[in-house]
Amino acid sequence: MSADHIWSILSEVSDPEIPVLNVVEMGIVREVLISDAGVEVTITPTYSGCPAMKTIETDIAEVLEEYGIPNYTISTVLSPAWTTDWMTDEAREKLRMEGIAPPQKGSADKGLIMGRLRDVKCPRCGSTETRMISQFGSTACKSLYQCASCAEPFDYFKCI
Amino acid sequence: MTQLQQFNYTIRLADDALILGQRLSEWCGHGPILEEDIALSNIALDYVGQATNLYKHASQLDTQKRDEDALALTRMEQEYNNILMLELPNGDYAATIMRQYFYSSFYLLFLDKLKTSNDSFLSGFAEKSIKELRYHVQHATDWVKRMGDGTEESHNRIQEAANQLWPYLGEMFGMDALESELASSGYAVDRSSLVEDWKKQCTALFDEATLAMPTEAWHHKGGREGRHTEHMGFLLAEMQFMQRAYPGAKW
Predict the structure, then answer these.
(1) What is the pLDDT of residues B41-56, one digit of tens each?
(2) How far is Cα of residue A121 from the mean position of the Cα atoms in its chain?
(3) What is the pLDDT of residues B160-184, one digit of tens each?
(4) Which CATH superfamily is domain B3-245 in?
(5) I need a labelling partner for B37 at 20 to 30 A (CA). Which of A151, B5, B177, B186 fits?
(6) What is the C-alpha end-to-end distance of chain B, expressed in Å?
């Protein structure tokens, strides 16, 4: 049993709120340690109040059981704090295909968050003529936008 | 620094987050427009999530070994140590927004200091929560400007909200023996050191929003000692009902 094997098992667990992505692509799984005591999986929440965390933990336990991994623990850490920068390019493209504008890179840049938003591309037509309708959207991690070119309202995965 | 002191400090932070989260969640389904309904529900969720993280940590420090649900939902009113402003009824939307601005702009400065705590849980908690608070501050700031520099009606309402809440702000910056000792050992934040920066920010926003800074000097206190306003009992009655009626209920 290798850590790679565990990682590939974990990538079968999808994010309950964004099923197109799995928890590894999301950057929610932080660490897989294998020792004599068993497998230790460390996860981190996207947002403190993310209601999906409990489900994610249960789903991870389920898939590990399914593959007959005998001794495992799942622990949650807050630090280092999750950031949208941990999302892979592949994950960003999957979000776009799903109609969710992916987060811009460089969330550490405070200016981005504090008002000077860069252009968010419409995931449907690619136009940058978009406007924010609300900073808060359908889930804690998304804002609500609308495209002025094709009129499509869409979710933008906001940077943290 | 004793474990009991660490527990008491963590409970203060947790109670602040939980009680504000509970108040904000009351807007769910009652927001003035759909987007605001969603915004405040999201913000409420962030606070309840932060409270959960804090109660979980407090649980490990608790000599009675209560879990996070027991700490959050089964203590008596006098055992809650949140500041009074956060338990006040929501009032109209201007009052809710003004409290959001006052508290979140303070809390962001507070967390920025807590990030340097020598306790690894507290610094990690701060690092995580700051990311959420930035959005809360921006949301409240936008609305204070919009209402202050809006119609006569909106201006008057948000000015009135600022005047009403002002005497409750002292508690945000209040230090006592517990926090002073923990701050001097590098564990906690010296709240009084944040006043200057906070006032500067608040004054700039009030200028832009054409609002007058209240000057009231007298401040309410008592929350940290478990002496609450008459509103707290009603809040707890609603928040604790399920766990009181069906102890240990889970779903």
Answers:
(1) 999 999 999 999 999 9
(2) 19
(3) 999 999 999 999 999 999 999 999 9
(4) Ferritin, core subunit, four-helix bundle (1.20.1260.10)
(5) A151
(6) 38
